[in-house]
Model the fold of this input.
Amino acid sequence: MIAFLIKRLMHAILVMFVISVLAFAIQDNLGDPVQQMVGQSVPESEREEIRERLGLNDPFLVQYARFAKNAVQGDFGYSYFYREPALEVIARHLPATLELVFAATLIIVLFSVPIGVYSAIKPRSPISRLFMGVSIIGISIPVFLTAIVLIQIFAIGVTVTLFPESTGWGAWLNDFFSTEGNMPSFGRGYDLVNVVGNWDTNLATWNGLQHLVLPAVSLASIMLPLFIRLIRAEMMEVLQSEYVKYARAKGISMRRVYFVHALKNTMLPVITVGGVQIGTMVAYTILTETVFQWPGMGLMFLDAINRADIPLIVSYLMIVGVIFVVTNTIVDLIYGMVNPTVKLTGKPA
Amino acid sequence: MSTSTNSPSASATPSRWERLRDSYMWYSFKRDYTAQLCLAVFICMVIAAFASPLLAPTDPYDLAQIDIMSSELPPFWIEGADERYSLGTDAQGRDLWSIVLYGTRVSLLIGFGAVILQALLGVTFGLMAGYLGGRVDTILMRLADIQLSFSTLMVAIVVGALVKATMGSAFYSQYAVMMLILIIGLAEWPQYARTVRASVLAEKNKEYVDAARVMGLRSKRIMFRHVLPNTMSPIFVISTVQIANAIISEAALSFLGLGMPETHPSLGSLIKSGFDYIQSGSWWITLIPGAVLVVLVLSINLLGDWLRDVMNPRLYKG
Done:
């Protein structure tokens, strides 16, 4: 266990090192910082002096060492745009992203397990076929398009005039397919409750929850089909195994066989894939947050790119690197706990 | 293998066509209407996209043909439509039908290009890792692990963002097609490398490889001429999924403004530019390219599903 954690730590340090070198290397190519700091009338000799004082004339390695020393102490420099420490800017945007990921994960878990299990137990039933068909369509729709469609339907509204108005049925069908479109689709809303520090939550008020629904559903929409298909495939494999047949032969009720015996072993691979996918969701938050103008890390990152706000870009990359390494480590630990046959220190899978 | 196509029966060496006709793949394709429909839709879209200069009534790249006065016109089934523009116009007054055709061509070009690059890199590295083993294997697979743990979309977004920030927007949009192929290709090679490595490991200890080695062939020749042909079926299967993924990745990058510029839009940048106008009621600018994208990706995905069922290789999960 300790050996595993140390190994993971080395792994993480290596990853962070690579990211930091890459991130630092691009800094040089983004124009002259001195030019952005001083006016046009400042003579070249003074510019040279500022450059010397800031250490911009030092060799690359010396500059990198200085950057790394500050970074290890949690100092990633000042954001050009916000004019405050980059890490503080990220800390302010982090809760919004985490709440979005949390809500999406909740939706995924609540829906994927029952649907996956049902369609594994009754693979030929029309409902399972419907779920499978919908899930492959879901995989094929990019997350930002789901978001746009949701906005069109629930935030803007759709007025259907496809059926003739004269008959009662036509009017009823028109009404049935039309939507009012009064869901909020922009930002986090006005009714946030401060929990602690800079963490304002959306989860405490009705208005906050309303604002959370559409972004969370569209973020969940990309992973939900994957999980349904994964759970179904694993469950169908488990149902073929000897111990399930044995449990069935013993006369244990089917419900117990499915949900106690089979489901447990189905969840093993789901946990590994799932953990990695929760990390992947961070990538999709960039897309979701852009569509809904959700003021989280992803939107902040994209703005930082458009403003060439290097310290902010670098710190975002480092923080995301930490998030990925931590989730992967936790997933491996949980996997080791639920499946004792896996030796963490042995050959990594 | 002779190419005599007219041999009446399978008594002689069967021709390629006959082998295809007798294969399980053809049999299963004949019975699977979904696969037939998807293949038909896919082929139609590819032909329409690459014949877009012939099919499109206007040339959307030609600024002289664009009239800003006719912007945001609705498609033909909605009142207020202009009969010159069957699917309506976008915010710049470009004919949506033409621009969607051209956009599909760009999307397909980038999708195929990126997958070819991924396959070249991934197959080479996967073969090397699996066949040579040892330190090469460790380094390559550790690299693949790290890259995959970051999720390919994340890698693509970050690389795209950094390249754009370093080179400047003007340069980036000038070479956007090449850049996107490069970025998506570099981001997704580990998928191929892992699949190929797994099947190479299964093949490598078989007797024909030993025989080739005993004959004194160089490892490069054994890898590419002997082992590689036997790992083709999983490569085919993941290729379909990867094309779909590459098209979606391209759309995502373009949607974020890291992809094709609006002057030469792909489906993704069309969706992006239309999204700015969705609040004003012009839903067709964004949803028509969106629907085309979904149909394209869906047909590729369904074909991939069918191909996986037919070839049934033990694929790497996740």
